[in-house]
Amino acid sequence: MPIETESLDLLSLSSSEQSRREFLIRLGLFLGGLTILGGAPAILEGCASASSPTGLKTGNTAASITVDVSSLTADGKFLVTGDVDPNGATIIIYRSAAGKFDAHSMQCTHAGCEIDSPNAGGTMSCPCHGSQFNVQGTVLQGPAGQNLASYATVFDATTNKLIVKFR
């Protein structure tokens, strides 16, 4: 024998017909909806996409830049340039050997945020989600899963200038 149940329309009850339980259900639904609507911007902003990175400048449209690397007198030294790559990220130059230099973007490969300059130990951190990279551009700690973008370089030993090629 089927059991009959009475349908409860919570939206059509007058305040005199409303029980405590019905009131609490309505209140919970209302507050839950407010929480979802109020928290949506923060949730959507939590993991910025590469199309909306933070801390980046206007991108460089030149095919290359020239950087004076005369201050990089020993292997393992690095220089954070004032120049930016085509994505608007600052560029870091690393001297790996005499006459050999690497150039990397300082744009995190996880969500596109500009990473911080290296600390005394040579570690660069992303302020958005905590990824860490060394000055060679290698991922030390995620969530980033790829090394920093690198650019081709040409060193002129007579002028101590490094050409960083974006294309």
SSE ordering: HEEEEEEEEE
Structural class: alpha+beta
What is the makeup of the main sheet? 6 strands, antiparallel
The number of E-state strands comes to: 9
Strand residues, percent: 25-35%
Helices, by number, come to 1
How far apart the termini lie comes to: 78 Å
Instruction: State the share of residues found in helices, binned by percent.
Output: 10-25%
Give the uncertain stretches in residue-range form: 42-56
Task: Please tell me how large the radius of gyration is.
Answer: 27 Å
Overall spatial form? elongated
Mean pLDDT: 77
Order of strands, widest sheet = 1-9-8-4-3-2
What this model shows, in words?
By secondary structure, this protein is an alpha+beta fold. It has one helix spanning 20-45; strands at 64-68, 78-84, 90-97, 100-105, 123-125, 132-134, 139-141, 150-156, 161-165. The strands form 2 sheets. The protein has a 6-stranded antiparallel sheet, with no helix packed on it. A 3-stranded antiparallel sheet has the order 5-6-7, with no helix packed on it. Strand 2 (78-84) and strand 3 form a beta hairpin. The longest helix has 26 residues, at 20-45.
Comma- or semicolon-separated keywords:
single chain, six-stranded antiparallel beta sheet, 167 residues, elongated, 9 strands, alpha+beta, 28% strand, 1 helix, three-stranded antiparallel beta sheet
